[in-house]
């Protein structure tokens, strides 16, 4: 079973009710950035082909596409389970962009 299938099974098994994107948790975050985001969603939809992760709370949405890999820790920390999505970058061949989410 590939990582994406394992991720789908993990999310289904855990029954998370909250998915949070924090700009401060992103690998590319800079402490001098003038904008900081905390976005929380209640639902996740995981598409297998194409590989996408769609987060929604009914009013707001966030979509991750061109997912090349996903990593997650099955044992939650005090703040939740860390999910790392690696997506194809702008040139699709040689670059990637990584995003982190907290699920609880």
Describe the structure.
- With 104 residues, this protein is mostly beta strands.
- It has a single domain (3-103), classed as Roll (PH-domain like).
- It has one helix and eight strands; from the N terminus they run H-E-E-E-E-E-E-E-E.
- The chain has one helix at residues 3-14, and strands spanning 19-22, 38-41, 43-47, 52-56, 61-64, 67-72, 81-88, 96-103.
- The strands form two sheets. A five-stranded antiparallel β-sheet has the order 2-1-8-7-6. Strands 3-4-5 form a three-stranded antiparallel β-sheet, with no helix packed on it.
- The longest helix has 12 residues, at 3-14.
- It starts with a helix and ends with a strand.
- The model has no long low-confidence stretch (mean pLDDT 92).
CATH topology descriptor: PH-domain like
Q: Strands of the biggest beta sheet: in what spatial order?
A: 2-1-8-7-6
Topology as H/E string? HEEEEEEEE
Q: Rg from C-alpha positions?
A: 14 Å
Q: So, CATH architecture? A: Roll
Please report the distance between the alpha carbons of the first and last residues: 24 Å
Helical content band: 10-25%
Give me some keywords for this one.
104 residues, mainly beta, PH-domain like, 5-stranded antiparallel beta sheet, 3-stranded antiparallel beta sheet, 1 helix, 8 strands, globular
Task: Summarize this entry quickly.
The protein is mainly beta. The chain has one helix and eight strands, in the order H-E-E-E-E-E-E-E-E. The protein has one helix at residues 3-14; strands at 19-22, 38-41, 43-47, 52-56, 61-64, 67-72, 81-88, 96-103.
């Amino acid at each position: 079973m590939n990582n994406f299938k394992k991720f789908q099974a993990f999310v289904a098994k855990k029954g998370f009710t909250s998915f949070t994107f924090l700009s401060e948790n992103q690998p590319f975050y800079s402490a001098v950035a003038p904008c900081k985001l905390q976005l929380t969603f209640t639902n996740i939809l995981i598409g297998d082909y194409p590989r996408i992760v769609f987060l929604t709370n009914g009013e707001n949405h966030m979509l991750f596409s061109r997912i090349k890999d996903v990593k997650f820790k099955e044992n939650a920390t005090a703040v939740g389970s860390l999910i790392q999505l690696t997506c194809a970058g702008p040139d699709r061949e040689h670059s990637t962009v990584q995003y982190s989410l907290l699920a609880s």
